[in-house]
Structure to design on (732 residues):
């Protein structure tokens, strides 16, 4: 069983903050309570139960200084706020519920009787709900839905007054868990959404979801087939939620931070070995608290609040009971504390947005609740024009895109070409706030330039300057007469971008780079001239000799033709310099195989000899110089004074197994047994050279023996995995 303990305030200093003595006392008591819970809870509470049962719903509205908002837009409450609470029960509701609201004011300070309110929901008067005013000194509001029994109101009131610390902690953890659950639900909804025709969607949006919502993504899921990615990303849901400074600050305003001890406990095997999830911590905390205050008459069930407009839907993790001990549903309203506006941050080093675009994306991080709740509303990007006017562009949070989507739709003046400043503005609950500032720049044709003196080689990057990088929507490259292709690019400054040239770029003729901007702005096209190519020494292969050692195994393999070169053979080939060139002794010969990333180099001191000024001989053992994993097309080229010539084909490099024995029974219809090392290098076996009935060798075959067909005419034929077109044979 993994428990996460969070510390709360026992005592308070003069300014209302938790005292050190109070924190220490509660720490020790909480730790003792934790150890006690571990001993008696058993395996039934070893894992956090899913909150997948739909409970009743409430309708809640809050009025603050004359302004009224639905509960989904209220992150925190204040003294004097007026709260309207009604039950949203079905017409055929048969069980009678009592709605109780209790204001709380600290772990060691029981609330007075006048801070408790009740509503009998089955009565005409009770259906009108509760109208509450937040009293001075209150820090939290706990809501109870209890089955109606005699003396239920006084019983619950006495329970809260007798154990105020337990209900204070429960209210804190329920509020935190509801916030964390809102982030989790937003993530799950995005992952579960299907978008036909977009197989790369999850690969594209998951990093942005992780940043927006502060959730942990299993990157290994994105290496799976598209159909398997979503189920993988939905595993271990409760552990996905990461610590979020702003969400925690809302509840820590009352409770005081307890991350240190929580993280210490989470590093134990019972705590998940350091895989800390505040959502799991809050749920396990509240379940443990409720388990400790259960009585013969009542058991307390945590209810997470799922908010949408004024509707407060309750999610339960266990079915309620209407027999003793009866189930009392417990949830919490937002804490009563000073407003904490989220620390909105512009990410990805974004310094400007494009004023010409009909839709702008302002990447925002640091505030997951912007995306997961309705706390932030009336969001706009206020643009400050040079003539003193301001224009507000609506902004909508989009977790999948990792920022605020801002609609322009022609609201900005079309003739505005100079950069203008804009400020993100909005309301957090009842509190207006100003967010980060951003620069709006306009796209203009003809401003992009290529720096002079740039030698653009294929596959390298070229830096373009002068235009508005925020307005670039795409770049294509056309090399010579080749069709235009999209090119990789990125903004490296407000007025500069880097473009990766294609491999074919500038090999022949000039290269055209087209920079596309927003609709209505003509694209820019820049031209790169083909650079002068240094001329390498060209030569031809005039002869080749392949010699295998006699000790190639008890059962030698004969290869048909001379196109294949065994990797363990000694290879010698001779090169003739083209007319008008000659060997000077400064040359080296580079050799590489198709499968190998390495290049072997032969020089006058190592395998390269001059016959005369026109002919040179090169010798090597490929397996020794290129490694035992090298195979495929074998090529060589001459390098002189740092300039390489063209690649020359030498043949196909193949690796051969070392065969020990072919044992065959007298019955020609029965299989033989072939033994040896590296049998995985054989692709197929056949009794005939035409491979009419081949026996395929499994990929990566690890054993040293394998069943083989009975040879016909004294020979067994094989195809090599390194060259499936080549046929070899062994004598049977």
């Amino acid at each position: 069983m993994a428990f996460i303990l969070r510390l709360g305030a026992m005592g308070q200093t003069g300014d209302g903050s938790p005292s050190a003595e109070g924190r220490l006392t509660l720490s020790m008591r909480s730790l003792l309570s934790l150890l006690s819970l571990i001993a008696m809870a058993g395996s039934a509470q070893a894992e956090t139960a899913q909150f997948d049962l739909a409970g009743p719903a409430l309708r809640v509205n809050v009025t603050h200084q004359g302004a009224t908002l639905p509960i989904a837009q209220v992150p925190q409450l204040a003294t004097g706020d007026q709260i309207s609470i009604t039950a949203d029960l079905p017409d055929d509701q048969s069980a009678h519920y009592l709605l109780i609201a209790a204001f709380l004011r600290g772990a060691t300070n029981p609330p007075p009787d006048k801070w408790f309110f009740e509503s009998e929901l089955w009565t005409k008067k009770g259906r009108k709900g509760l109208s509450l005013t937040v009293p001075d000194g209150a820090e939290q509001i706990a809501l109870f839905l209890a089955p109606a029994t005699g003396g239920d109101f006084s019983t619950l009131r006495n329970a809260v007054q007798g154990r105020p610390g337990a209900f204070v902690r429960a209210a804190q953890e329920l509020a935190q868990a509801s916030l964390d659950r809102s982030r989790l639900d937003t993530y799950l909804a995005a992952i579960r959404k299907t978008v036909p025709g977009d197989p790369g969607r999850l690969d594209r949006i998951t990093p942005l979801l992780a940043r927006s919502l502060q959730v942990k993504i299993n990157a290994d899921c994105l290496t799976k087939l598209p159909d398997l990615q979503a189920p993988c990303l939905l595993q271990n849901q409760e552990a996905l939620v990461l610590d979020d400074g702003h969400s925690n600050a809302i509840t820590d305003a009352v409770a005081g931070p307890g991350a240190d001890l929580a993280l210490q406990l989470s590093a134990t095997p019972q705590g998940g070995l350091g895989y800390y999830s505040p959502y799991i911590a809050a749920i396990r905390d509240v379940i443990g608290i409720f388990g400790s205050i259960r009585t013969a008459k009542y058991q307390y069930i945590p209810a997470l609040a799922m908010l949408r407009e004024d509707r407060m839907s309750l999610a339960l993790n266990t079915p309620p009971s209407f027999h003793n001990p009866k189930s009392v549903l417990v949830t919490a309203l937002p804490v009563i504390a000073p407003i904490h506006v989220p620390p909105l941050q512009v990410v990805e080093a974004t310094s400007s947005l494009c004023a010409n675009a009909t839709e702008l994306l302002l990447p925002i991080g640091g505030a997951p609740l912007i995306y997961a709740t309705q706390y932030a509303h009336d969001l706009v990007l206020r643009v400050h024009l040079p003539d003193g006017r301001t224009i507000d562009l609506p902004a909508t949070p989009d977790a999948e895109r990792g920022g605020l989507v801002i609609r322009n739709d022609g609201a900005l003046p079309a003739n505005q070409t100079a950069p203008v400043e804009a400020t993100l503005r909005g309301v957090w609950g009842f509190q207006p706030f100003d967010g980060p500032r951003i620069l709006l720049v306009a796209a203009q044709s003809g401003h992009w330039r290529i720096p002079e003196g740039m030698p653009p080689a294929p596959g390298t990057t070229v830096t373009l300057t002068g235009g508005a990088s925020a307005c670039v929507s795409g770049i294509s490259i056309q090399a010579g007469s080749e069709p235009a292709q999209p090119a990789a690019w990125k903004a490296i400054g407000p007025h500069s971008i880097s473009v990766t040239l294609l491999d074919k770029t500038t090999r022949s003729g000039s290269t055209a780079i087209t920079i596309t901007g927003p609709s209505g702005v003509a694209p820019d096209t820049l031209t790169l001239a083909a650079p002068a190519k240094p001329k390498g020494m060209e030569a031809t292969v005039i002869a080749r000799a392949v010699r295998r050692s006699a000790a190639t195994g008890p059962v030698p393999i004969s290869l048909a033709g001379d196109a294949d070169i065994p990797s363990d053979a000694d290879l010698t080939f001779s090169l003739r310099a083209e007319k008008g060139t000659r060997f000077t002794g400064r040359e080296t010969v580079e050799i590489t195989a198709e499968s190998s990333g390495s290049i072997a180099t032969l020089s006058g001191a190592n395998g390269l000899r001059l016959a005369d000024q026109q002919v040179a001989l090169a010798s090597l053992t490929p397996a020794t110089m290129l490694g035992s994993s090298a195979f495929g097309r074998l090529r060589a080229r001459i390098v002189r004074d740092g300039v390489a010539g063209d690649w020359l084909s030498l043949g196909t490099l193949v690796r051969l197994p070392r065969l020990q024995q072919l044992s065959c029974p007298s019955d020609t219809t029965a299989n033989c047994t072939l033994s040896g090392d590296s049998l995985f290098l054989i692709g197929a076996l056949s009794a005939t050279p035409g491979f009419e009935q081949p026996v395929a060798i499994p990929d990566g075959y690890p054993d040293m023996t394998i069943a083989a067909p009975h040879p016909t005419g004294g020979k067994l034929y094989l195809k090599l995995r390194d060259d499936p077109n080549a046929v070899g044979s062994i004598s049977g």
Q: What stands out?
A: The radius of gyration is 38 Å. The longest helix spans residues 164-192. Residues 345-441 form a domain with the Immunoglobulin-like fold (CATH 2.60.40).
